[in-house]
Amino acid sequence: MLRGSSGFYCYAVLEHAGSWPALNITEARLAFKLNTARFTYMAVSDEIQRYMPRAADRDAPRGMPLAYKEAVLLLNPAEPQFKGEVDDKYQYSLDNKDNAVHGWIAGAPGPAVGFWVVTPSNEFKTGGPLKRELTSHVGPTSLTVSMFMGTHYVGNDIVAKIKEGEHWKKVMGPVFIYLNSNPERGNFHTLWEDAKAQAEAEASKWPYTFPESPDFHKAGQRGSVTGRLLVRDRFVSGKDMPARRAYVGLAAPGQPGSWAIESKGYQFWTRASATCGSFAIGNVRAGVYNLYAWVPGTLGDYMHTAAVTVDAGGAVALGDLVFEPPRSGPTLWEIGVPDRSAAEFFVPEPNPKYVNKLFLSKDKYRQYGLWDRYAELYPAGDPVFTVGESHYSKDWFFAHVTR
């Protein structure tokens, strides 16, 4: 805790001694269980926030488990407004890149009080910017950073596998647990906006100066990497093109795209310029990395061929880097947009028996049971996409599912 600060900081240093046997770490997390009677409103993003059912509503006979235990149909909740809805913690997951702050608000009796999990940096998260993880869910429960380490949406490939005789150490955090209040009981929007502002303030102070552990590297123990990424695709342009808004990151040495299943080391990501493709990655812990990138709208993964060594206080200038996407000829046709999202494809309406009212118009892909809708919509067989006639927004299902 810091004097005058409305909250407290949490971090952990995980270490595996070289004399220890092999160890697999599937999850490492810090969870907070809040007062069930008071904290009833949850906020995960500007669009994803609402009053939530109580934990007791999930238990029989008030609730009925569905295909997996986390998804429950609310049959007779204490508050009738939730009757007939599905509660499922996975519906509130976020990508690491979007998960800066989430939490709960307590209303009456008394002033409105907010409890927020603020993540000032993603450097200690596993799987890079697109790794999806849990946030807050009915309990009321908040998971820090969603989780420090977790296998959700990836599986065993992202388990941290530490070998016998391997010395390993990693600093998780700090994250900031922020508390705010408002005498206006129903004014939750003000608390959420204040929490977002606090998240930005915490990010601006990273790396923190106050952790006493020598394992947490301060600014003077870190370096920077700069450069410019260009795309060379002669079937699109005769000139090298700037990799506009590319995701560019440093992660443990590996293969192109291996950052997505990397969990033992640190990762440092940024977005390239929207005009010239230049990038700057600051506050990088000293170490040896590969530089990885991917460009929205362009197929493939980029990896710089040479390892990048960052020294304390050092500045690595890589200059111009060229990414040549995989090609065997000009594009004849394509289905969708290569942006690592399925947002452009057809997302069906949910079964009206299993809905979450929050996602009826936006983010419909979060609804429960959409995998069953595939066989219902295409009972005779898989759909046929006819080039030049079909359109992926209505003729291509957003997920690969079984019948």
UniProtKB/TrEMBL annotation:
Gene3D superfamilies hit by this protein: 2.70.98.10, Carboxypeptidase-like, regulatory domain
Superkingdom of the organism of origin: Eukaryota
Pfam name, any one: CBM-like
Chain segments annotated as transmembrane: none
Keywords tagged on the record: Lyase, Secreted, Signal
CDD domains per record: RGL4_M, RGL4_N
Secretion signal span: none
Single Gene Ontology BP annotation: carbohydrate metabolic process
GO molecular function: carbohydrate binding; rhamnogalacturonan endolyase activity
Predominant cellular place of this UniProt entry's protein: secreted
Entry similarity comment: Belongs to the polysaccharide lyase 4 family.
Entry protein name: rhamnogalacturonan endolyase
Source species: Aegilops tauschii subsp. strangulata
